[in-house]
Amino acid sequence: MEVLITADRIHARVEELATEIARTYDGKPVTVVGILTGCLMFTADLIRRINLPLRVAFITASSYRGETLVPGLLEIRDELLPDIAGKHILLLDDILDTGKTLTRVVAHLIDRGAASVKVGVLLRKIGRQEVPFEPDFVGFTIPDKFVVGYGLDFNDEYRHLPFVGVLLGGE
């Protein structure tokens, strides 16, 4: 496996993102909604550094299943989501790939009555986006390679790695 982004670079960038987010919301309470399972590491590290009143919730939105590198049908499950009507939402995801997942989840949160939805992603993959979507906060821009680590997986493995790496053979 080739290390693409080291643990030290990730932690430094997460600190910068926390400052940007706090500045953007200017003291307003925020409900952070993480898209499981890939967001877990990013969300945990980021929320500990954001100096704002926060609520934390999670949803699942997945189009990858098993040993595939190709997305399938998107399934959104929001049973763990509290009432978000009138709340400012910061949606966090591990990666912006095609843009389809984030576009659908943002629409879902707006349909549930969110006052506003801003999006933060750890990674933005170049060359894969199929729908127009601009996240508000981006950790890193990466090439079109299949990556794992720091929450990202292949067949539910590699999430625990403290860095982001390119899975060899998955390019």
UniProtKB/TrEMBL annotation:
Enzyme class: transferase
Chain ranges of the Phosphoribosyltransferase domain: 8-154
This protein's UniProt keywords: Cytoplasm, Glycosyltransferase, Magnesium, Metal-binding, Nucleotide-binding, Purine salvage, Transferase
Catalytic activity of the protein: IMP + diphosphate = hypoxanthine + 5-phospho-alpha-D-ribose 1-diphosphate; GMP + diphosphate = guanine + 5-phospho-alpha-D-ribose 1-diphosphate
Pfam hit, one: Pribosyltran
Listed pathway(s): Purine metabolism; IMP biosynthesis via salvage pathway; IMP from hypoxanthine: step 1/1
Compartmental location: Cytoplasm
Single annotated GO MF: glycosyltransferase activity
Xref: InterPro entries: HGPRT, Hxn_phspho_trans, PRTase-like, PRTase_dom
Cofactor(s) the protein requires to work: Mg(2+)
Gene3D superfamilies: 3.40.50.2020
E.C. code: 2.4.2.8
Protein family per UniProt: Belongs to the purine/pyrimidine phosphoribosyltransferase family.
PANTHER family: HYPOXANTHINE PHOSPHORIBOSYLTRANSFERASE, HYPOXANTHINE-GUANINE PHOSPHORIBOSYLTRANSFERASE
Name the UniProt record assigns to this protein: Hypoxanthine phosphoribosyltransferase
Native source organism of the sequence: Gemmata palustris
